[in-house]
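#help-structures
NK: newbie question, is this the right format to request a structure? protein is Beta-galactosidase
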Amino acid sequence: MTVPKAHLKLPYLLHGGDYNPDQWQAYPQIIDQDFTMMPQAGVNTVTVGVFSWAALEPEEGHYDFGWLDQVFDRVEAMNGRVILATPSGARPHWLADRYPEVLRTDEYGRQALFGGRHNHCFTAPSYREQTQQINRKLAERYGQRPSLLLWHISNEFGGECHCDLCQAAFRQWVQKKYQTLAAVNEAWWTPFWGHTLTAWDQIHSPSPIGDTNLKGLNLDWRRFVTDQTIDFYENEIQPLRELTPEIPITTNFMTDTPAMMPFHGLDYQKFATHLDVISWDSYPAWGNDQESTADLGLKVAMINDYYRSLKQQDFLIMESSPSLVNWHPFNRPKRPGVNRLAGLQNIASGSDSMLYFQWRQSRGASEMFHGAVVDHHGSTATRTFQEVSQLGADLKQLAPVRQLPHVPARVALVFDYDNMCALADSEAYADTTKQYWQTLQQHYAYFWRHDIPIDVISPQADLAPYQLVLDPMHFLMDQAWIDKVADFTQAGGTVVGTYLSGVVDERTLAYLGDQPQRLHELYGVQTTEVDTLYPHQHNGVHYGDQTYPAQDYCEVITNQTASVLATYTADFYAGQPAITKNQYGAGTAYYLAARTDAACLTALYHQLATELDLHPTYPLAKASSDISIQVRGDQNQRYLFVMNFGETANTINLTQPLTEVLSNRTYPAGAQELAPYQVLVFHELIK
Ligand code: GAL
């Protein structure tokens, strides 16, 4: 693990984004215009060089830094900052021609032609050497520039390569992990279909024309891909650490849309320990026809909380669209006010930036119709430019917020990458309804809607700061986690677990017999059967004095030491326990045997929040949960972000007069109406 060496020193909240003047070298007047327009939009930061290798090194060993020197000069003239990318996300043609092994091989064994991006081999020594060389040149030339704020390594790492070099690296990885072939055969359960390995070189990455059924192989491959990507990244940053130890390092993480879940291809919780600063690219489908803005806002909030929790520190929005994208199934511009709402939501969640992809719309190629601050008309009069400028002015007013953390959470929601992969890969239950991240969102919803801070943590996280740990659908659980969560509960914590938990170990092998014993003791129940329902089938859960629908998964459990809070209403397990509560040491463990609806979760979490005295960080009455109130602050002051995600006006009730920062006016006590998508930011000094 790399110990973070540098901290981000922010002169302001960052506003700006990807800037690609290398595409416009034949249009000097456009570049002149850019630097006239940037201050008008409140832009103070540009990310440059993301795909600029061909412009920086047009031939091997021949460099052209003139255009980039000018960018630095001009950004410095406007007192701005540069986030400098290393260009490995796309390679020049000459590099692929001379070193063909850098081209990626797919799972069918087909090597790619030159083209696209994000498609290099992570193992090829030649790519690693070339990358180090160009990165060293960049660090030598720009490392001392006063505007250099942050290194942006490559772009959205992802994907995998199955070439011979990668196969060899994978075999070494497996050998190091398991030591003996017998251990591999056990872990991957290879005697199934007689796939027993008798030599190390028989090990091969999963492939549709080879093995895809060995669950342990599949999960180990995913783990290897993360480790190999991190190894590639570590190679990239070596000259930067050497020459610019004080400049922090990030790489931009991404999400799978529309679920707004962490990218499935890499274990970011592991990767995060190698970064100084977390940054991510946020592309929610605002204005879609599937969900309200408030429901999408909830999803964005949760992934922001996840990225903040990765290092328990402020993060950056590295990319977002100021209007529309060009790669959603439907590409709709943000409604008026939504860019401001989205930008301020990010700041409220702990981001210190709102950066866009990209400053100026490309003239051709695949992203020519992707939204940008400046579109093809090149005017400042567009709605997008005006709204971006408005947010730029807001962020200037909010500059002190960058020194204030998001308020600490006492509730943690567990997300486990290995579990996500293993559950998705398990040939069990139902194809379409496992929905791990979406289930986490359902549990998260109560806390977001009630303005109770919540972290999204990995099983490696320290549980000490928390009172309540939510641990849904933890199908793959290792003994270390079981002990950790049991110790936490024994010492007085409260845990909520659910159906489909503790089924397999870290090798993806099923637990046998009464194992894992401590988990059964923790919850005081044991699962005997899982009823997987078809989408239109329902059971019911009788809880309190109401019956709630249960769908998708209903476990039949036997109760050992717990008290039964709810029972099933139908089918052969009618009357049997559906929700239980177990005293475990000084703490309490709740078990939800069935997937219930939001109303049932609300009832349960309402009871828990009351018992545990979990309350909103700021007690402000609101007429609708479409309004969210998020707080950044410390013991001396706080900023309250009051955000109306509603498509209609909604009111809040101020108990005392408060100063609103963006309008610089004092709001009196009493009811205040917020227009659709309106945001008010109140500042309060704490006496
Ligand atoms: C990101 C990528 C950018 C740009 C953007 C468009 O995933 O990092 O380079 O392609 O998407 O939305």
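mod (FA): yep, format's fine, and the tokens are attached above. The mean pLDDT is 97.
NK: thank you!
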